[in-house]
Amino acid sequence: MFQETLTAQPVIEAGRFVLRPLRRSDAGLISMYTADRRVAEGTRAIPHPLPPGAAENFVARAMAEKRSEDVWAMDGSANGLAEVLGIVSLTRVEPDQSEVGFWVGPGFWNTGFASEAVAALVAANPHNSRTLFAEVFQDNPGSARVLTNSGFEYLGDAESWSVARGGRVPTWTYLRKMG
């Protein structure tokens, strides 16, 4: 993955919330949500149990000038919702391709928030990518629907390491051609 100095992240309108860059005050809610085994096991990189300081370190990396990933909070505070509903991210893997990642706090599952966030990120295309890549664990068909609802096409099966599960997990991979 590329580590480069990325431009400032835009705030992106996403229906019932905005996608905004992380700030230090987000660490508490991020820590609370990702301490849930179900959230951690739905991702490749979140450990379970969550070590002390992990959320603060994640926020610090997301705010760093030199980073390989842009991370946005799904912030619903303007509409009477939580300040952090979940996270959506873009990681540049090649100059013209980025990988989409996302998770939503368990109290907001099955609300359409993930679909709104990914659709808004795809529409904004802040990395000006020609293609977007994503993968989901095969035991998470809801996340697969989020991707297909945003125009991602199924590529095939693979495996990825999950820190929380301590092993390789079967995945479905997806690609979205842009513009």
Automatic annotation (TrEMBL):
Q: Does the keyword Transferase apply?
A: yes
Q: Which SUPFAM superfamilies match?
A: Acyl-CoA N-acyltransferases (Nat)
User: Any idea which GO molecular function terms this record carries?
Assistant: acyltransferase activity, transferring groups other than amino-acyl groups
Q: Does the keyword Transferase apply?
A: yes
Matching InterPro entries, A to Z?
Acyl_CoA_acyltransferase, GNAT_dom
**Transmembrane regions:** none
- Alphabetized UniProt keyword annotations: Transferase
A Pfam family (short name) is Acetyltransf_3
In what residue span(s) does the N-acetyltransferase domain sit? Answer: 16-153
Protein name, entry field:
N-acetyltransferase
